Amino acid sequence: xxHVKKVLVLFLLPLxxxxxxxxxxxxxxxxxxxxxxxxxxxxxxxxxxxxxxxxNERYGIDSKLGTEEESEMDREYFEKYLRSxxxxxxxxxxxxxxxxxxxxxxxxxxCYLEVPKINLPEVSSVAIVNEVLTDMFDEQQNVVHFKIxxxxxxxxxxKSDIKGMLNL
Length: 168
Hints:
The chain is of the alpha+beta class. The protein is built from 3 helices and 10 strands. The termini are far apart.
């Protein structure tokens, strides 16, 4: 039994050391369509500590986003940053979206966005431009999954390739 524990420790130690030494910079965005609401519904997830770091760096604030001390200023700077780095295009035109809300799940910030009244029969393309966190982390990857009608498509957006588009 003692020998098994030693072998297990020797096997797991290098794996743990590798995961601690390497940090992933990734966000995941899901884009769907609600027939009931005639709206694009978007959920985007980013690591909370990365978002706090970029707000601190970009705006020179000591953001408390995701803590009990989160202020209105934190929320305003977050929304300002999001709107400057994340956009939605329908038929090649940038459209407004509503930030319906956000929540925190462990180390993740989850945002709920909606583009209302899109009249899907007249939509030929939907695109997401996502530059979130690429200004701070060169390795940032922003994954976008589209599922609209019966069409599915996924993209990995990078600092050099910021747009993913689904043609309908």
